[in-house]
Amino acid sequence: MGQSTTCVAFILEINKMAGIFGPISNSIRLTEFSIRDAYTLKIFENNHTRLPSWCNDEDDHLPFCQIIGEY
Q1: CA–CA dist 9, 5 (Å, integer)
Q2: How many Å apart are CA 34 and CA 54, to the nearest integer?
Q3: Do residues 30 and 51 lie in contact, with contact meaning Cβ atoms separated by under 8 Å?
Q4: Domain residue extents for the chain
Q5: What pLDDT score was predicted for residue 58?
Q6: Which residues of 16-48 are buried (b: 16+ CB within 10 A; e: fewer)?
Q7: What is the 3-state secondary structure (H, E, C) of the chain?
Q8: Region 2-11: what's the mean pLDDT?
Q9: What is the distance between the alpha carbons of residues 51 and 45, in angstroms, rounded to a whole number?
Q10: pTM of the predicted model, to two decimals?
Q11: For position 60, what pLDDT does the model report?
């Protein structure tokens, strides 16, 4: 059988493999994160001037860049 994991640990593992956590990646234990912990990470761009020009063309009230979909 393969490995089993929670949804939040799976997503954080993808982020870790993408290098989002930078030099501290090896010291992060993803299985200790809760969903709330994942949502409160400061890994998202909050400076709207750095977002692509196509981002939120129609929904400029969103505090994030909605790439695809309604929700």
Answers
A1: 6
A2: 32
A3: no
A4: 7-44
A5: 66
A6: beeeebeeeeeeeebeebeeeebeeeeeeeeee
A7: CCCCCCHHHHHHHHHHHCCCCHHHHHHCCHHHCCHHHHHHCCCCCCCHHHCCCCCCCCCCCCCCCCCCCCC
A8: 82
A9: 8
A10: 0.58
A11: 63
Residues of 53-63 as b/e, b for ≥16 C-beta within 10 angstroms? eebbeeeeeee
* Best CA proximity match to 30, nearest among 44, 11, 45: 11
Q: Is the pLDDT of residue 6 over 70?
A: yes
CA-to-CA distance for 71 and 61, rounded, in angstroms?
14
Cα 18 to chain center, whole Å?
11
CA distances from 1 to 4, 36, 54, 71 (A): 9, 29, 44, 35
